[in-house]
Design goal:
It contains 15 helices and no strands. By secondary structure, it is mainly α. The mean pLDDT is about 85. Belongs to the sodium:solute symporter (SSF) (TC 2.A.21) family. GO terms for molecular function: symporter activity. It comes from marine metagenome.
Length: about 350
């Protein structure tokens, strides 16, 4: 990477770590560490809710989904606003007035400690497995960009996150999430702008979207009842509703967020903010994938995006075969352009 890139990454990580450690001064008490003393503003909690649901897998996988399949995946989130309204009326005031630290603490009050332990264990196991994937996915991409070993890259991602979480508690995590959302929205918007500016002269956004539409990638809503279709309006509305009720109502990673709000109304506003901003953000990320598809209709893509892997193949025993494939690939691209 360019030295400017390293400077930006270093400055950002230093800022996140410093701010997380600085906020650890207010986390000596149990409620301060786990619930930020119920003092966070609704907009910060709302951004944290969105950032917690989003990961590098979203940016990589959803963009790939838009590239290969278009905008249809956005239907998966159509049940989210309904779920958030239901939770705002029911579980947010319930958990807040119960004065619990976790979603599973109430299970011990209602049933017994064994029930709480089982629910907590299931959460920790599932979240631990998920975090492994969440870290390894961006590590694969960053290891290519940085030309680092994959394991070293994963450790480099995990250690700063662990430090500010361990010392700063949920308050540090929430404000780190706020920073992350600003970076994510800004970065995705910048990528969209670069893709549009990278189109050939005479090809504007309207023409690009017309081409995307001719391939079916702008077909966003499907009202059919076809059970063979994975993403339809109805599967997103009803299936997504059930999934979102379970995730935002029972998963501690989400429940803890709105328990840090200053009041019941603040918790409600945080969830509703996520409900109505999540779909446009997902649509923007999917659109990025669609624009990547259009971009590579006019610009020849590399056969392998991993330059290190490509160099290994060129210098290996299959170098001549790879060169022949590359020539065929170039000829096929030129024929398609004609």
């Amino acid at each position: 990477m360019h030295p400017i890139d390293w400077t930006i990454v270093g400055a950002y990580l230093s800022w996140v770590l410093y701010d997380g450690l600085r906020r650890s001064k207010d986390t000596h008490a149990l409620e301060g560490y786990f619930l930020a003393s119920r003092s966070l503003p609704w907009w910060a909690v709302g951004l944290s809710v969105m950032a917690t649901q989003m990961s590098a897998i979203t940016l990589v996988g959803t963009t790939g989904q838009g590239y290969s399949d278009g905008m249809r995946f956005v239907q998966f989130y159509f049940g989210l606003p309904v779920a958030m309204i239901i939770l705002s009326v029911t579980l947010v005031p319930f958990f807040y007035r119960a004065k619990v630290f976790t979603a599973y603490e109430y299970l011990e009050r209602r049933f017994d400690a064994k029930t709480r332990m089982l629910a907590g264990l299931l959460f920790l196991v599932s979240r631990g497995l998920a975090v492994g994937v969440i870290i390894s996915a961006p590590a694969v991409v960053l290891s290519i960009v940085l030309e680092w070993n994959l394991a070293v890259t994963a450790v480099a991602i995990g250690i700063p996150t662990t430090l500010y979480t361990m010392f700063g508690g949920v308050q540090a995590v929430t404000w780190a999430d706020v920073k992350q959302m600003v970076v994510i929205v800004g970065a995705v918007s910048a990528v969209v702008a670069v893709l549009i500016l990278g189109l050939p002269e005479g090809i504007g956004l309207g023409e690009a979207l017309q081409v995307a539409g001719s391939t079916g990638r702008l077909e966003t809503i499907d009202f059919s009842f076809d059970l063979d279709e994975t993403y339809t309006f109805w599967s997103g509305l009803f299936g997504g509703l059930v999934l979102m009720l379970g995730y935002f109502g029972c998963d501690q990673s989400q429940v803890q967020r709105y328990l840090t709000a200053r009041s019941v109304d603040a918790g409600r506003r945080a969830l509703l903010m996520s409900a109505f901003w999540k779909i446009p953000l997902q649509a923007l990320i999917l659109l990025t994938g669609v624009l990547v598809f259009i971009f590579y209709l006019f610009h020849e893509p590399p056969m392998l995006f991993n330059a290190t892997h490509e160099d290994q193949i060129r210098s290996g025993g299959q170098g001549s075969e790879y060169a022949s494939l590359e020539t065929d690939f170039h000829d096929a691209f030129e024929q398609r352009r004609e």
